[in-house]
Amino acid sequence: MNELYRQRRQRHLRQMLHYLRLVFNDHFVIALMFFVGGLGLAYSNWLKTVSPRDTWIILVVGLILWLGLAIGRIATLLEPADTVFLLPREHDLHAYLVHAWHYSWWLAQAVQVIVVGLTVPILMLVDQLSGVSLLALLVTQLALKDSELTVRVTRLYRLPQAPARWLGMANAGLALVILALSLLVSPWLGAVLALILAGGQRWWHNQVWPHTVVAWQADIKSEANRMLGIYRFFNLFTDVPMVQGSVKRRKYLDWLLRWLPRDQTHAFGYLFTRGMLRGTEFSGLVTRLTVIGAILLYFIGHGWLAIGLDVIFIYLIGFQLLPFYKRYDNIVFTHIYPLAAPLKFKNFQRLLTVILSTTGIIFLIAVWLSNAPLAQVGILLVVNAIEIYLLVAWYAKMRLA
Amino acid sequence: MALAVSHLVGGYSQIPVLKDISFDVQPGELVGLIGLNGAGKSTTINHIIGLLTPMKGSIKLNGVTLASDPQQYKQQLAYIPETPILYEELTLKEHLEMTMLAYGLDQTAAWKRAHELLTIFRLDNKLDWFPANFSKGMKQKVMIVCAFLTNAKLFIIDEPFLGLDPLAVHDLLHLIETVKKQGASVLMSTHVLDTAEKFCDRFVLLHAGEIQTQGTFDEIKAHYPDAGDSLNDIYLTLTGVTRDE
């Protein structure tokens, strides 16, 4: 069982690494640097506006710490076939799950350290917390996460109905109370209580699991959901075969289609526009990046940083849309329609132009709303127009035609 | 002569699957393309619809090859695949419109025809549905409606009888009969030999990438008097797949 988890973890890590390499490609690292830089800048600017009298912020911090506890689950790496093949060794599965627990524990606690780290500047500013008190707060947060993870492991087993329903909620409720005491009364009191809670949960776990059975179906389902969440995240940046984009009718968008020309030369346009609007994969990508970009531009707004960000986001959207050109290549009819060969690419260029121009206009509005000087909006307009022209007429042609 | 395949050598890779195949389909004629799995039926069809390029030989549709005038060639051709292939994001109505646009059909006339066909195949109340979620038989009906919407001169139908309900098979055969009367040609591959025997005007029997024999049922029977009375028997004898009984 030890060996089994080790093998699966290795395969899992290899797969994650494979996707991470795809995610952190050159373009993305640049965009990420801008993104983190922009967020950091916004955060530090915001901190300057906070005064030590704003004690309500303490409550917000408590809430953030409490919500942060939900980050990090148990990577059981169970697979559907396990119900058949591991069922005979159910008792030994505890050893397997303990391995999963340890592996997930380190990951989850690393995230908690970051969460606490992010709130430290606010706490030092508002609450005037000392270094030792901050350490106590960190201990509290880690102990609370430990108890939360123990609950998750306990719930991998089939529990009597009442605890099954209340265990998670009760633990989360206690965590909230402890965090409140920690921030409002004494960090040390919070730390002691959190450690007691963590110890209690571990004790109870050891009492419970030998006398019950593994909740196979639920565990496999939740593991599948966890993996789907990860794949969805990766799918924002690259193609993940496990995530199939779904199709939604989206009748409320039909008015957009009415503007399009309908004749033989625009047959592929007819197909492309509908596919784009109704498939979740590519339309989701455009929407997400446009919204994120617009928000960042609204907060940054001024100077070269904004222009760079704008250029990068439009490029990111543009080059990630290129695979859509081949979306229908496996449908035999697209090859046997009596349509002249260049029409498909022309129709695609048209679609690309419309999408990127829309994004460009939204970005311009975001910059304009952030009170940037009108001259900068003008510069951005010219920059966008040139970039879109280059992407559509030159880059797309080089890659596809 | 509507379709003329002459000395076709072809296949997917360097090794040819089809070895020197010649046959034709006349206007107003239904020709059955018969063969075991792997005999080369689909490869032949893929060559005719233009997915594969001949290594040797030529395929002419009313005198035009794919290379000489691709648009003119493709305009004359309609194809019904064995496994229905649909656009996930298009509704039934949009599949029909897509076909009309792609073949440059007159919308009013095409819609009139479309409604007739939809009524025949009992799809007329499903125009706003996604056919991708239909059952296999219904998907196949969508393929049939799309193909017969065009004014094609040659219909290529790959194994139409599996998955369709008996009523739909009857309606399809009737439809084929109608386009034949209008002068169109139909090339149909199938394993359902007794239906083929009844409805096809001529047969092309493929085996291991070669044409075993071709002609009308009577011609074939006269040629192999000892092979049996039904197409089924004759075919099994000719391919040498006689099992000990």
UniProtKB/TrEMBL annotation, chain A:
Q: Indicate yes or no for the key word Cell membrane.
A: no
Keywords in alphabetical order = Membrane, Transmembrane, Transmembrane helix
Give the InterPro entries listed for this entry.
Answer: EcsB_ABC
Q: Give the residue spans that cross the bilayer.
A: 20-43, 55-75, 105-126, 172-197, 282-300, 306-325, 351-369, 375-396
Claim: RNA-binding is one of the keywords in the record: no
- Report the domain of life of the source organism: Bacteria
> What name does UniProt use for this protein?
ABC transporter permease
UniProtKB/TrEMBL annotation, chain B:
Q: Name one GO molecular function term.
A: ATP binding
Q: Which InterPro entries match?
A: AAA+_ATPase (IPR003593), ABC_transporter-like_ATP-bd (IPR003439), ABC_transporter-like_CS (IPR017871), ABC_Transporter_VariousFunc (IPR051782), P-loop_NTPase (IPR027417)
Q: Where are the transmembrane segments?
A: none
- UniProt entry keywords in alphabetical sequence: ATP-binding, Nucleotide-binding, Transport
Record's signal peptide: none
- What are the leading ranks of the lineage? Bacteria, Bacillati, Bacillota, Bacilli, Lactobacillales
ABC transporter domain location, by residue? 3-233
Q: Species name for this entry?
A: Lactiplantibacillus dongliensis
Q: What is this protein called?
A: ABC transporter ATP-binding protein
| Pfam families (UniProt xref) | ABC_tran
Superkingdom to which the source organism belongs: Bacteria
